[in-house]
Write a structure and sequence with these properties.
With about 400 residues, the chain is of the alpha/beta class. The chain has two domains: about 120 residues, 3-Layer(aba) Sandwich (Rossmann fold), CATH 3.40.50; about 250 residues, Hypothetical protein af1432 (Orthogonal Bundle), CATH 1.10.3210. The protein has 21 helices and five strands. It has a five-stranded parallel β-sheet with strand order 2-1-3-4-5, with helices on both faces. Helix 5 runs antiparallel to helix 17, helix 13 packs across helix 19 and helix 18 packs across helix 19.
């Protein structure tokens, strides 16, 4: 049974939450407290799988509480509820919360978020490894611009307003235009503005780019070169989107999902590179090997499992999580078509099969994608997956 601690200084809110979640009492063991002090007293005595805290509370607020939770119980998933629109509040909470939900929170949304967290925790079943991940001081977070963008999208604000939010960050704007105008992204014409990009590709692709930018632009460990990982992830994302369109003729929303999976499939490398207790030289060698079997031997888990764990905590779709998780070769059910497109793209990038990829014309890129797809299909078809120890993805990476 999942143990959940709800914290809110308003008893009436807790009572409403308790009534609304009554149908979950056979699956959730719920505790309700009205202050951060009470919450910490409980956490000193017992373990909780999830803490759900209000942001605005007298004394110790939600962000401060979740910071304390991270330190004393790092394997616990952390959700913040906030009804405020203050950017500083949002920014503070993104550093410690796995999920940010607006208040008042729809109960079905809360149930869905907790269900995703439970599934994510199942993918990294070792509590010790989850604790190691949770202790990382600079755990990658979906930053303030991302949170503001998502809130604006949910409010159905105009493309002009969404572009305005993004363009407040000049470096991010330049990154978006650079990515979209690379040849292997597959666009028929040049993108001149963020608003034009939204019209061509939709908000989902914009969210994916901002998500990738936010997690890789944060201060990171010296063990992993975040710029190198970020650039490789961007290349894999763009190529996976292009490959998925060519190989499956997928819809725009599915292309956005495979792009997001590519942007964030290596975020786990930042986490593994920040875990204390391993010699930095050894850790650097392991993470630069691009061999997930070596990573599992060194850390007990590989970057793709960690990435899928974080994506689950961040409540991304199961299709995106499954595609990333399949790269570790330890996932059921069998690899999806989205996972296969991601694996094809990663194989091309990691093996330097198109070193000047951004300068290659679209026909050459398509020919390369089809050639690699045929080679890998001949070696081992993507469905069903072979035994986890000798998986398709293990052979590719």
């Amino acid at each position: 049974m999942l143990k959940i601690l709800f914290v809110d200084d308003q008893p009436s809110v807790l009572e409403d939450t308790q009534r609304a979640t009554e149908d979950m009492r056979h699956q959730w063991d719920m505790t309700f407290v009205t202050s951060a002090d009470e919450a910490m007293e409980l956490l000193d005595r017992e373990a909780f799988d999830v803490v759900v805290s209000d942001m605005r509370m007298p004394g110790t607020d939600g962000a401060e509480l979740l910071f304390l939770v991270r330190n004393c119980s790092p394997s616990t998933a952390r959700i913040i509820l906030s009804g405020c629109d203050e950017d500083e509040m949002i920014f503070r909470s993104t550093r410690v919360a796995h999920q940010f939900l607006t208040k008042p929170c729809d109960v079905d949304m809360l149930k869905s978020a907790i269900a995703e967290i439970r599934a994510a925790q199942g993918r990294v079943s070792s509590e010790e490894i989850r604790a190691l991940i949770g202790r990382v001081d600079q755990l990658p977070a979906l930053g303030e611009v991302y949170q503001r963008l998502v809130r604006a999208i949910e409010a159905e604000e105009s493309s002009a307003r969404l572009a305005e939010i993004v363009c407040e960050d000049v470096a991010l704007t330049a990154e978006i235009l650079r990515l979209l105008n690379s040849a292997f992204f597959g666009l028929a014409r040049r993108v001149e503005s963020v608003e034009q990009a939204i019209g061509l590709l939709g908000t989902d692709v914009l969210r994916a780019i901002v998500a990738g930018y936010s997690v890789f632009s944060q201060p990171g460990s010296l063990v992993v070169d975040a710029d190198v990982v970020s650039r490789r992830s961007q290349q894999v994302a763009a190529l996976a989107r292009h490959a998925h369109r060519i190989l499956t003729g997928a819809s725009r929303s599915e292309l956005a999902d495979v792009y997001l999976a590519g942007m964030l499939h290596e975020v786990g490398a930042l986490v593994l590179g920040s875990i204390e207790g391993m010699d930095p030289v050894d850790a650097r060698g392991v993470l630069n090997s691009n061999d997930n079997t070596v990573e599992r031997l060194a850390f007990g888990v590989d970057r793709f499992a960690v990435s899928s764990y974080l994506l689950g905590l961040w409540a991304f779709s199961s299709e995106v999580i499954q595609a990333v998780a399949s790269l570790s070769g330890r996932v059921e059910p069998p690899m999806t078509s989205m996972g296969w497109s991601l694996a094809v793209a990663r194989h091309i990038i990691v093996n330097n099969l198109a070193e000047e990829l951004e300068e290659v014309d679209a026909d050459a890129i398509e020919a390369l994608i089809r050639s690699v797809d045929e080679q890998l299909l001949a070696a081992a078809p993507p469905t069903p997956l072979p035994d986890p120890e000798t998986s398709v993805s293990g052979a590719l990476i």
